[in-house]
Amino acid sequence: MKENMLKLSENYDVVSLDVFDTAIFRLCERPTDLFRKIIIKQNDGNINFHSIRIKMEADAAKDLTGDMAACITLDKIYSQMPREFSSKLENLRRAEIKLEEQFTYANPEILGIYNYLRKNNRKVIFLSDMYLPVEVIRNLLAKSDYLGELEIHVSAEIGLSKHTGSIYKLIKSQYGSKIMHIGDNYTSDYTNAIKGEMDAIYYQTKKSISARIVNYIKYISYKPIYI
Asked: How far apart are CA 26 and CA 34, in angstroms?
């Protein structure tokens, strides 16, 4: 797979990479598992943040469609914080970002492609449908050894998404016609990129059983953050 992607990418001036589950992985199987590691301290007993945080995101996107739903921000999500926890808002937000930093790591296959392309003077950019601020994503990539000046386009900041395909029109107008996108979501990263008149590769993420076990052991070894 890596060899095929390298050969294909050599024919393009610009290669765009999806971020989560393509360029970088998380230790947890589901992104929302991260929220289980945050505990809200209360006088009458501790509360796990997991279900609260999931509802906050659902409420932030409620009644929204298209790019508006796909481009919600972390600030918008945290504006849905239940009133009884509002005094802990900033600490909870910081804890979430800290856990993202702890739980993400490079996909070695894609990192190898990234380094090869940079060595051969190809421009590489990153696209993400994500609520996290671009600077947080930049830090996640940098700590995962994606070095150099990182050009990152995040739906939450530009109001355009892979989910609707609107971001591809912007990317093509900004970088020209010889662009290829690589990502793990068949619709958002592959079908919509092609509809946007860009070439694309559907990257099917495969983790071995042993890798999943190692990740799970690492995940459970992290102590919860109490807020």
From this structure: 9
